[in-house]
UniProtKB/TrEMBL annotation:
Protein name, per record: Phosphoserine aminotransferase
Entry GO MF terms: O-phospho-L-serine:2-oxoglutarate aminotransferase activity; pyridoxal phosphate binding
GO biological process entries: L-serine biosynthetic process; pyridoxine biosynthetic process
InterPro entries named in the record: Aminotrans_V_dom (IPR000192), Aminotrans_V_PyrdxlP_BS (IPR020578), LisH (IPR006594), Pser_aminoTfrase (IPR022278), PyrdxlP-dep_Trfase (IPR015424), PyrdxlP-dep_Trfase_major (IPR015421), PyrdxlP-dep_Trfase_small (IPR015422)
Ranges for domain Aminotransferase class V: 5-341
Self-association state and partner proteins as the record states: Homodimer.
Family stated for the protein in its record: Belongs to the class-V pyridoxal-phosphate-dependent aminotransferase family. SerC subfamily.
Taxonomy of the source species: Bacteria, Pseudomonadati, Bacteroidota, Flavobacteriia, Flavobacteriales
Post-translational modification N6-(pyridoxal phosphate)lysine, affected residues: K191
Binding site for L-glutamate: R41
Described purpose of this protein according to its UniProt entry: Catalyzes the reversible conversion of 3-phosphohydroxypyruvate to phosphoserine and of 3-hydroxy-2-oxo-4-phosphonooxybutanoate to phosphohydroxythreonine.
Cofactor note (record): Binds 1 pyridoxal phosphate per subunit.
Compartmental location: Cytoplasm
Pathway(s) this gene product operates in, as recorded in its UniProt entry: Cofactor biosynthesis; pyridoxine 5'-phosphate biosynthesis; pyridoxine 5'-phosphate from D-erythrose 4-phosphate: step 3/5; Amino-acid biosynthesis; L-serine biosynthesis; L-serine from 3-phospho-D-glycerate: step 2/3
């Protein structure tokens, strides 16, 4: 039986994407060769890479606006350092909204001093700080749009005179935003776009080339742009599968269409959390993530019953992160609303048993 997959990452992908990807592994497009055993310089693969890069910009509404899309390796975690190498000259400002922000700060600090413009650490990151200043003489401002672990999400981004850099690993392509307000966006593929193994970077070209340091080739965005995102062998399977997911998304009507679905799923989930006295939401209401709903079960004695019921209903991947505890329902683009209905039914059934 296919499970209801609420995994936080790597996470659920559309069934049709999995099917097409697995076919390509055996025989790409009737070529008699597997996608993963052909040259990345072949016309077939160069075409895949170019379509994927173009579709990213199309879906984000960034075509013709001076942006380039890259499919890199090393995860979002490598971007923590790479973005700083490319953009940090004197000082940068960081918004600290959780574990991933903290890691981004730690890596940038290897190069230079950074300044935390605000932090919600004092409340175990259950909210998004709102009032803070971003000094206009800094090199860039960095934020994390969706805090996967804590279940908070930035709803409104600050006005920013300097390049705004955003880690969108867990909510890219999930909601409509003016993406042109960002100078650089990055996201590990494995939450909302594809399998692990590639990281999407979308960068406005004119923010590059301003630092004085020597940037090692493999860490240099300009070099990656110059080589068409093929400076070295790209992760061909991850890029192709990401392309399939992006095509699936476009077929549904793009970000505008999926956003409506994501809002419906989140409404259903949070209304159960709020109405059911057995459960309590972790994140402050106004900052709740549409992607990751974090909540706790108030009565510890019901834990085993609840978890057995979840298992019997085929619900998978709802255990909370160790730093928050409780439960986390990740509702990425590919998760059907019916899966949320199943989870919510289990929660309400538990209430009748309590
Ligand atoms: C998962 C995640 C990361 C880490 O991504 P890797 O690809 O594993 O390095 C970074 N930031 C956020 C917001 C995440 O959710």
């Amino acid at each position: 039986m296919k499970k209801h997959n609420f995994s936080a990452g790597p996470s659920i992908l559309p069934q049709e994407v999995l099917l097409k990807a697995s076919e390509a592994v055996l025989d790409y497009n009737g070529s008699g060769l597997s996608l993963i055993e052909i040259s990345h310089r072949s016309k077939d693969f160069v075409d895949i890479m170019e379509r994927a890069r173009a579709l990213v910009l199309e879906l984000l509404g960034l075509e013709g606006k001076g942006y380039k899309a890259l499919f890199l390796q090393g995860g979002a975690s490598t971007q923590f350092l790479m973005l700083a190498m490319n953009l940090l000259e004197k000082r940068a400002g960081y918004l600290n909204t959780g574990a991933w922000s903290e890691k981004a700060i730690k890596e940038a600090k290897v190069l230079d001093d950074i300044y935390e413009v605000a932090s919600s650490k004092n409340a175990n990151f259950n909210y998004i700080p709102k009032q803070y200043d971003i000094p206009s003489d800094y090199d860039y401002f960095h934020c994390t749009s969706n805090n996967t672990i804590f279940g908070t999400q930035i709803k409104s981004f600050p006005k920013c005179d300097i390049p705004m850099v955003c880690d969108m690993s867990s909510d890219i392509f999930s909601r409509q935003l003016d993406f042109s307000q960002f100078g650089l966006i990055y996201a590990g593929a494995q939450k909302n776009m594809g399998p692990a193994g590639t990281t999407l970077v979308v960068v406005k070209e004119d923010i590059l080339g301003k630092v004085s340091r020597n940037i090692p080739t493999i860490m240099d965005y300009k070099k990656h742009i110059g080589s068409g995102s093929m400076l070295n062998t790209p992760p061909v399977f991850a890029v192709y599968t990401s392309l399939l997911t992006l095509e699936w998304l476009k077929g549904l009507g793009g970000i505008a269409a999926i956003e409506k679905e994501n809002e419906k799923k989140a409404r259903l989930m949070y209304s159960e959390i709020d109405l059911n006295p057995l459960f309590k939401g972790f994140a402050t209401k106004e900052d709740r993530s549409l992607m990751n709903a974090t909540f706790t079960l108030e009565n510890e004695n019901l834990k085993d019953t609840f978890e057995t019921m979840l298992k019997e209903a085929g619900v998978s991947g709802v255990n909370g992160h160790r730093s928050v505890g409780g439960y986390r329902a990740s509702m990425y683009n590919a998760l059907p609303i019916d899966s949320v209905k199943v989870l919510v039914e289990v929660m309400s059934e538990l209430e009748t048993k309590a």
